[in-house]
Give the backbone structure.
Amino acid sequence: MSLPHAILTALLEKPSSGLELTRRFDRSIGYFWSSTHQQIYRELGRLEGAGFIRALPSAQPARGQKKEYEVLPAGRAELTAWVSTAEDPKPARDALLLRMRAAAVVGTHGLGSELRRHLALHQEQLAEYAGIEERHFPPEKDAEEDRLRHLVLRAGIDLERFWIEWLARAITQLGDGETPFEDCPEEGPTERENREKGA
C-alpha cells in the first residue's frame, strides 16, 4: 500500500479538508498505514497536480479558508486499478525481534522490562480495537463495505492477540515469574458473540 492510495480511499469515503484528513488518519487508516501530517499535505498537492483530486469550489471564498478535496474520475480509476494489482507480502522488520537476537550474544539485561512494556502497549491497543468493533460493527451491519472494513479491523485485533500471546511466552521463557495474561482485556460483546456463533 502507498500513501496516495490511502488518501484516495479516505477521500472517496468522504471529501475532506487537509486538516480533517489528518484527523481521520489518526483515528482509522493510521492504525495500519501511519503517515505524518506533513506527508499527507504534501501528497494532497501531488494528487491535485496529477489530476486525481480537486479542491471543491467554495460558495464564499475567504482568506485562510480550508480547502476541501474530492476524488476525480482519474483518481477513482487509479485506485480501482491498484486494488487488483499483485503485490508480494513485505518481509517483517521489527526492532524488538532484532533486539532479542542481539541479546542472544550480549545478554538479556534490561530486556524483561522492555518486553513487559510492549505487552502493556499491545494490551491497550487490543482494548481500543475491541471498543471500535463494539461501537461500529454490530451484527446487523452486514453490507459488503462493512464486512471489508470489519475484516481490516479483525486483522488488527488478531495481530494484537498474537503479540500478547508471544510476549507472554517470551517473558515466561526468560524466567520472569509474572502471569501477564491476568491483565489482558476481556472480550467485547461483539467479539464474544462472534466466537460463540462459530463454536
